[in-house]
Amino acid sequence: MPKPENTFTSWRQGLAQRAVHAVWGWAQRRGAVTAGQPGRFRFGAIGEATRLAFPLGTVFGEPWITLGSHCIIGEQVTLTAGLMPDLDLGPDPILRIGDGVVLGRGSHVIADTTVTIGRDCYFGPYVYVTSTNHSYDDPHEPIGRQWPRMEPVEIGPGCWIGTGAVILPGARIGRNVVVAAGAVVRGTVPDHAVVAGAPARVVRRWTPEEGWQPPLRTPAPVPPPAGVTGAQLGALAALDEEQVEQLAKLDAEG
Hints:
This protein has 254 residues and is an alpha/beta fold. It contains three helices and 24 strands.
C-alpha cells in the first residue's frame, strides 16, 4: 500500500535538489578553464573563446599543449603530453589542437609524441587518440613493462570523428574525412573519404572527376535561403505536413 505523501518532506526534497543543481551549475561555470581563467593549468597556448568544461579529465604536460581559438573541450576529456607528468619535453609543442575544434565528452588525446588535430574537427564522445602503442617483442617480459612504440598522429582539418572511434599511432587522416562510430583507424586515410570498421577501410570517397563514389543515397541538405530569420524557420517547423504541401503548391503556382 503506498505511503501517504508528506507535503513538507516533498517540498524540502525539491528545495534540496534545486540547491544541488544550483551549486553544481556554479561549480561548472567556475571550474571551466579558459584563457582568462586558466586556474592551475599553464598551457603552451590557449586561444580566444576556448573553453575546457568542468569537470576535466586527466590533464598534464600542458606547457607542451597548444589549443587554438573557439575550441570546445567537453567534460572529462583527457589531454596529455609526454609519458608522465613533470617531464621536460623540449622546446616544441607535442599536442597541437587547431581553431574551432570540438572534443566530445570523455574523449582521450594521448600525445607521447607529436599529435596534431587540424582546425574545425569535430569529435563525438569517447573518442580515443593515441601516439603510443604497447610492444610485446619479448615473450618473457610483461607487456606493460616493455618500452612502447611511438609514432606521430595527424588529423587533417574539417574531419568528423564518430563516437567511440580509435585513432592509432602513425595514423595520417586527410582533410574533411568522416570516421564512423567505433572505427579503428591506422595508416593513411585520403582526403574527402568515409572510413568505417575495425580496422577502418574506405567505404566512400569524393574526387573532382567522379564526385562521391559510391553515390550518396540521400540528397544533400539545402541551406535556408538568404535573409530567412530564425523566427521564420521556427514557424515553418511548427507547420504540419498538409500545411507544408499547401505552401509548396502555392509557391509552384506562382
